[in-house]
């Protein structure tokens, strides 16, 4: 079968079987083309609440499929490839954070959405890269324990100097691969390009950027900018997506290594097999855990 034939079969099956396909913007292009919704973590977590279909296939990583299930327990939620985890989400567990909380009892625990459901049960509020700044500014406490991403936490801390932040040593191994020397090389090679980076990058990369934001933020900025050239400091799918969306502009990857193997784990054949019901993993959460984690996500949606 060709990719086009597989895509046509997926479109047919999702209609017949009342399936909604959600795809994070880092997914492969052929998957994005057949998705009902695509976007960053925040957009997808909000969308997940309101889709009419009874079955949702989440093309992304495990914590994203868990978020959909937390918000829509009545739906059948399928993770498109059971091996697709997020290494950052697996860096810290409930036991560790419970111990840290004992040391800092007067801090509000702000958890990046890239955390497990189990960990969310001991946190106060979730954030995504696009909602973190607003939420940290507006939280009714001037002491914030921000987990797990210390790069995102550092970026927020610098913009909210009136509050005290405690950061732990976690983060995204994909974005952490980008070095400041790669920035210097890319800028020398493309002197007219603007540098757009994700806040999961290291501080020494973030501070050289012309714009810092979530995947959707980066895409929106590039689409609306008068500039014609951009260096993209996030997962390299965004370079490809932008190049297709804005064929009159030029997009260069900041680093050829910024590829998330977990986000790339799902293939178009995996998605076809999920629609047929022969692949993917149905997400199941026990009700007590789900409700505790949901309180954290509900607060994010309310404040974000
Ligand atoms: P956003 O989609 O919120 O920008 O997050 C990036 C990411 O690394 C998702 O895993
Ligand atoms: Fe996790 Fe980073 Fe991959 Fe996103 S890009 S899924 S944060 S490892």
Walk me through what this model shows.
With 304 residues, this protein is an alpha/beta fold. It has helices spanning 3-16, 29-32, 41-50, 62-71, 94-103, 117-120, 132-138, 150-159, 180-189, 203-206, 215-224, 237-245, 268-276, 287-303, and strands at residues 19-24, 37-39, 55-59, 76-79, 108-112, 125-127, 143-147, 164-167, 194-197, 211-212, 229-233, 250-253, 281-282. The strands form 3 sheets. Strands 2-1-3-4-13 form a 5-stranded mixed beta sheet, sandwiched between helices. It is globular. The termini are far apart. The site of iron/sulfur cluster has 12 residues, from loops.
Which oligomerization state do the chains in this entry correspond to? single chain
Largest sheet: 5 strands, mixed
Instruction: Quote the distance from N terminus to C terminus.
Output: 43 Å
Report strand order across the widest sheet.
Answer: 2-1-3-4-13
What's the count of strands? 13
Shape: globular
Rg is: 19 Å
β-strand percent reads 15-25%
Determine the mean pLDDT: 96
Low-confidence stretches: none
Helix content bin: 40-55%
By helix and strand content, what is the structural category? Answer: alpha/beta
Bound molecules: 1,3-dihydroxyacetonephosphate, iron/sulfur cluster
Spell the H/E element sequence: HEHEHEHEHEHEHEHEHEHEHEHEHEH
Please tally the helical runs, counting DSSP H or I stretches of 4 or more residues: 14
